[in-house]
Amino acid sequence: MNQGIDTNILVRLAANDDPKQVAKASRLLQTTFSKSSPAWISLIVVVEFTWVLRRLFKYTRKDISDSITQLLETDRFLVEGEDLVRVALQSYQSSKADFSDCLILARNLSRKISPTHTFDRKAAKLEGFQLLK
């Protein structure tokens, strides 16, 4: 059975802001997880991760994109819906929409659900969303 990690573990590793917790998180990653037994990262954790980096740590869109890319490329991580996250990341990088909106759109389009109605003007600029006026 795979083991998962929560948002706060990823945030410690990305933000490197608390030496004690960073050391514990790094040790967990090195001793518990491997390419053959990766840490499970749920879609909810990915969304929370981007939110925390943006709101609490004031990461730029590029920093957040780089952090998501690193999650996807780390062989000790297994990201739920990796293909959806990659599609969402592309939308995020080419728009002003929040990552969570890009992921909602990617998921809905993968299920042939379109349009997705929204009041969010930034999200509505993505093809597949429709602004409710």
Task: Report the principal-axis shape.
Answer: globular
Termini separation (Å)? 47 Å
For the largest beta sheet, what order do the strands appear in spatially?
1-2-3
Secondary-structure class: mainly alpha
Rg on CA atoms, Å: 16 Å
Poorly predicted ranges:
none
Number of helices: 7
Strand content: 5-15%
Main sheet record: 3 strands, parallel
Count the beta strands.
Answer: 5
Task: Outline the structure in words.
By secondary structure, the chain is mainly α. Helices cover 58% and strands 11% of the residues. It has two domains: 78 residues, no CATH class; 38 residues, no CATH class. Strands 1-2-3 form a three-stranded parallel beta sheet. Strands 4-5 form a two-stranded parallel sheet. It is globular, with a radius of gyration of 16 Å.
Characteristics:
single chain; 133 residues; mainly alpha; two-stranded parallel sheet
What is the topological layout?
Elements: E1 3-4, H1 7-15, H2 19-32, E2 39-41, H3 43-55, H4 61-73, E3 77-79, H5 82-93, H6 99-110, E4 116-118, H7 121-124, E5 129-131
Parallel strand pairs: 1-2, 2-3, 4-5
Helix pairs in contact: 1-2, 1-3, 3-4, 4-5, 5-6
Short description:
By secondary structure, the protein is mainly alpha-helical.
